[in-house]
Amino acid sequence: MADRFAPGDRVRTRALDPAGHTRLPRYARGAVGTVVEPAGRHPLADDRARGLRPDPQPVYHVRFAAADLFGGGDHSVTVELWEDYLTPAEEQA
Amino acid sequence: MSGHHASSAISADVRAVEAFLEQRGVLDPGEIDTRIDEFLAGGSPANGARVVARAWVDPAFTDRLLADANSAIREVGLSMAGGIQEQRLKVVANTAEEHNVVVCTLCSCYPIALLGPSPSWYKSEAYRSRVVRDPRGVLREFGLELPAATSIAVWDASAESRYMVLPRRPEGSDGLTEEALAGLVTRKGLIGTASV
C-alpha cells in the first residue's frame, strides 16, 4: 500500500469518539494539521487492542497550530497519527 | 512478586494480577522483575547526553541524527532495540527560533534507553494535560523562561515513536571536550523542560 499522504499535505483527523481504545488523542479530533514526515508503518493500535491482527499502515507526524486545537496559544503540537485517522483537509470528515 | 510497584491503587490491582498469574504457573516467581531489570539495563540520561555532545562537536553527525536517529545512535554504541521490538527514535533540535518539548498525553511513552526511567512528573496527569495547552506556562514553572519570540513545538508520543530533544550548545563551551560537554546535559534538557 502506497502512502496516501506526503509532507506538506493538509489533513483532517477523524472526529469520531470510538467505543474502544484509540491513539487519536481527544484534543486532536476533527482538527486540521499538516503532515511533517512519515513515522514508520505500524498495525493500527485500535484494532490490536481488540485482538485483531491488522496489516501495518503508514503513521505520520502531523503538526497542528495550538489555536486550531484549543482556540488559543502560539505554539504547535505534533502528534503521530495512523493513516486511518486522516482524510484530506478539503474533504468533509 | 515484582518489586517495582508503587503504593498507588493501580499498583494494588497489578500486584493482584501478578500474584494470580504466578499462582496459575503462567509466570515464574520473580519473572517480572527479571524482565523489567533487563529492559532498564543500561538505560540512563548519560546515554542521551553522549548523543547530544557528539552532535555538538560533529555537524555531520547532527545531520544523520536528525534524519535517522536509530542509525545515528549506533555510531556511539547505543540502540533503541532493548525492548520487545526496536522503537523508532525521533530527535528534535532546538534552535534560536524554536524550542521543543516532549510529552505522552495518552500514557507515559519515553525513550528509556537514552533517558533512563522517566521522572514521576513526566507521568503525572498535570504535566501531560497542561503542556500541550500551555507549554510556555509549564516551562516557566520549571524555571525556563523563553523569549517571547521563541516559538514552542510540543511533541506528543501518541504512537510508536519516542522523542529526544537536542538542546542548543551553551555559549562559552567552545573549549570543552566531548566528555565535558556531555556533563552539561540534563535529563530535563533532553525532555525540553530545561534549556540544556
3D structure, described in words:
The complex is a heterodimer of chains A (93) and B (196). The two termini of chain A are 22 Å apart. Chain A has a single domain (10-88), classed as SH3 type barrels. A five-stranded antiparallel β-sheet of chain A has the order 4-3-2-1-5. Chain A is globular, with a radius of gyration of 13 Å. With 93 residues, chain A is mostly beta strands. Helix content of chain A is 11%, strand content 39%. Chain B is α/β, with parallel strands linked by helices and 196 residues long. Chain B has two domains: 3-37, no CATH class; 43-191, Nitrile hydratase alpha /Thiocyanate hydrolase gamma (Nitrile Hydratase, Chain A, Alpha-Beta Complex), CATH 3.90.330.10. Chain B contains eleven helices and four strands. Chain B has helices at 9-23, 31-40, 45-57, 59-67, 69-74, 112-115, 120-123, 125-130, 135-141, 178-182, 187-191, and strands spanning 88-93, 98-103, 151-156, 161-166. In chain B, the strands form two sheets. A two-stranded parallel ribbon of chain B has the order 1-4. A two-stranded parallel ribbon of chain B has the order 2-3. In chain B, helix 3 (45-57) crosses helix 4 (59-67). The N and C termini of chain B lie far apart (39 Å). The mean pLDDT of chain B is 93. The A-B interface holds A 23-25, 27-28, 39-40, 42, 45, 59, 61, 63, 66, 69-70, 73-82 and B 88, 90, 105-106, 132-136, 151-161.
Map the helices and strands.
The complex is a heterodimer of chains A (93) and B (196).
Chain A (H helix, E strand, L loop, with lengths): L9 E4 L18 E12 L1 H5 L6 E10 H5 L5 E7 L3 E3 L5
Antiparallel strand pairs in A: 1-2, 1-5, 2-3, 3-4
Chain B lengths: L8 H15 L7 H10 L4 H13 L1 H9 L1 H6 L13 E6 L4 E6 L8 H4 L4 H4 L1 H6 L4 H7 L9 E6 L4 E6 L11 H5 L4 H5 L5
Parallel strand pairs in B: 1-4, 2-3
Organism (chain A): Petropleomorpha daqingensis
Keywords (chain A): Lyase
GO molecular function, one term (chain A): nitrile hydratase activity
